[in-house]
Amino acid sequence: SLVKPALELRNLSAWYGESRALYDVSLDVKPGGVVSLLGRNGAGKTTIVKSIMGLMNRREGSVRFENRETIGLSPRKIALLGIGLVPEERGIFGTLTVQENLMLPPVVRDGGMTLERIFDLFPNVRARLTAAGNALSGGEQQMLAIARILRTGARAILLDEPTEGLAPVIVQQIRKTIESMKEMGFTILLVEQNFDFAARVSDAFVVIENGRVVDRLEGPLGSAEIESVRRFLSV
Ligand code: ATP
């Protein structure tokens, strides 16, 4: 393809102490593209997004964002380049209000989304401005977590299991949010257990097993591909 990827992983390996968790993972996310990492529990999906963010104490290979190498940079420097991680545990401040959470993004760089745009994207967040983080529903917490990362000015967003534990109607709202973010031009790497959800929002899929890439698929998927991925994930 002629389009240079926004996010380019080449032979990325990572370790927890002495224990190797990733083996030469290579993948691309095009500017404005949505790629899903699929795989069973413990496959290494979370480790990939943590490695991109610089959160593993040992990683090797190459992770380039908009042509800049990030291996060797701290998580803060990586965030300042324009990558944001919405972690599985969401990372919001439970005892602070929604408004305070929005005023305290993990980093601040140019181009952070204004509160007005945040409220357009997440009307529920506006409605809950004075509530404490830990008084929110799971879906509201997820939306606040995404909103805080959009406040940082990140252009590439790593979403770790955004739909986990949420009711189907809330999962639909998260889907609309991701579609809006895509329309706004954000580059998105998604970790998902919910394959039906991932299949609807993604342009491409990378299947992970034992810390390795074992398959790659371009969307939209045909029914035979959907069946074979579903069978693989449920074994
Ligand atoms: P899940 O959906 O369960 O989070 P995952 O695909 O995201 O699955 P990872 O969390 O990336 O998987 O885990 C990959 C491997 O790394 C697993 O074998 C796991 O046991 C191991 N691992 C994860 N976190 C740590 C840690 N802090 N210390 C040591 N090993 C870890």
From TrEMBL:
The keyword Signal does not apply. The keyword Transport applies. SUPFAM superfamilies: P-loop containing nucleoside triphosphate hydrolases. It comes from the Bacteria. GO terms for molecular function: ATP binding; ATP hydrolysis activity; branched-chain amino acid transmembrane transporter activity. Keywords: Amino-acid transport, ATP-binding, Nucleotide-binding, Transport. One of its GO terms (biological process) is L-amino acid transport. Residues 7-235 form the ABC transporter domain. Belongs to the ABC transporter superfamily. This is ABC transporter ATP-binding protein. It comes from Fertoeibacter niger.
